[in-house]
Design a protein that fits this description.
Elements lengths: L1 H22 L4 E6 L5 H16 L3 E6 L4 H13 L4 E4 L8 H10 L2 E5 L8 E7 L1 H15 L10 E6 L6 H19 L3 E3 L6 H4 L6 H15 L8 E4 L2 H14 L7 E2 L6 H8 L6 E3 L2 H17 L4 H5 L6 E4 L4 E3 L2 E2 L2 E4 L2 E3 L5 H4 L4 E3 L6 E3 L2
Parallel strand pairs: 1-2, 1-3, 3-4, 4-5, 5-14, 6-7, 6-8, 8-9
Antiparallel strand pairs: 10-15, 11-14, 12-13, 16-17
Helix pairs in contact: 1-11, 2-11, 3-4, 5-6, 8-9
Amino acid sequence: MKKFVSLLLVLTLVLSVFAVASAEGAKKVGIAMPTKSLERWNSDGEYLDEQFKAAGYETLVVYSDNDVNKQVNDIQNLLAEDVDMLLITAVDGQALNTVMDEAAEKGVIVIAYDRLIMHDAVSYYVSYDNYTVGKLQGEFVESALDLANAGDKTFNMEFTAGDPADNNAGYFFNGAYDVLKPYIDNGTIKVVSGQTEFQQVATAQWNTDTALDRAQNLLASYYADGTVLDAWLCSNDSTAAGVAQAIESDYAGDNVVIVTGQDADDVNLVNIYEDKQTMSVYKNLGNEVIVTLAVAKAALEGEIDGEQLATTFGIECDFDTESYETTPGNKCPSFLLVPTVVTKDNMQVLVDTGFYAWNADNTYVQKVK
C-alpha cells in the first residue's frame, strides 16, 4: 500500500504541473497502439489516454489491428489532425519510414513507447530494460532448476520467442539465452528440438494460437516417447498461454513444467496459481505512463536534460544514450524502467500498484484498471 500511495503522490505532482501548461492552451497528442487484441496494448492505450487527458492534453487514440498498412494510415490521419506529438507503439518498427519522414517534415515530436521505431524522427524511447526482462526469465529457470549445482544431471527445455517485427523481441530472447547458453554448451540443458536460434522460435504478432500450434508440434515430435520436459522459456504471456495449453493437452509427463512469461495478463495469473505457468515479468503500467508524461511535457517545452529529468520521477529509471539506435550510429535517448518478477508467492506486488486486486478467494489477482 505504501508503494501505491507513493505512486499516486508522484502522479498527482506530475499532473498538477501539467495542469498549468494546459491553461495556456492544450497541446494535441496522437497515441498509436498496435492492437486491441492483446490485453497489454488495450490497457496501455486506455491508460495513456486517460492520464494525458487528465494532464490537460487533447488526445487522439488509434489501434491498428496489428496491420502495418493500417498503422501507417492511422498515423497519417493523426498528422492530418495537426498533433503536436506522437506516442507510437509500432506494429513493425522497421516499416514506418514514410510516415516518420512526414512527421519529421511537420516538426512533430515522436516518442517510441515500449517498442523502438527504427527511424531518426524518433526523439525519445520510453520502455523497460528489455534485455533485463529476458535476463530475469533466464535467471528464474537457472534458479528453479538449480543449474549451477546440477553436476551430472541434465534438463530438457524449449524456447518460444516473440514477434520478429517487434524490436524488443530480440532483446528479450537474447537476455534469456545469454543466461542459459553456458548450460546448453556444457550439456546441462538439452534443447531437444535443437531450435535455439531466434528465427526458429519466433512467434509472429505474439499470437497465442501460433505458439500453441508450434508447441503441440514440438511435443508430438520430440516428447511423445516419454522424454521429460523440464522448462519452456516463453518471452511473454500471450505465447506462454499457448504453450501452457499445449503442455496441458499434449504432454504426457506428470511433472510440473517451468513456464516463463511477461506482462502479468489475467489469464496467465490464473495459470500461475494453477501451476500451468510459473512466473511472469511485470512491467508497471503506471510507472511507464508517469515517465512518458514527464518526458512528453519536457519535450514539448524544448530540449530536455535526460539525466536530470530521470531523477525527478520518484521511480527507478535509467537514462540511457548508448543501448538503442534508430539507425546505425544514431543513438536514441532512452528512459528504461526496471521490471519485476511475479510468481504465485508474491502477487501482492501487483496489488500494491493499484492496477490489480485479489479475487474473491484471495488466491490470485486480476486487473481492476
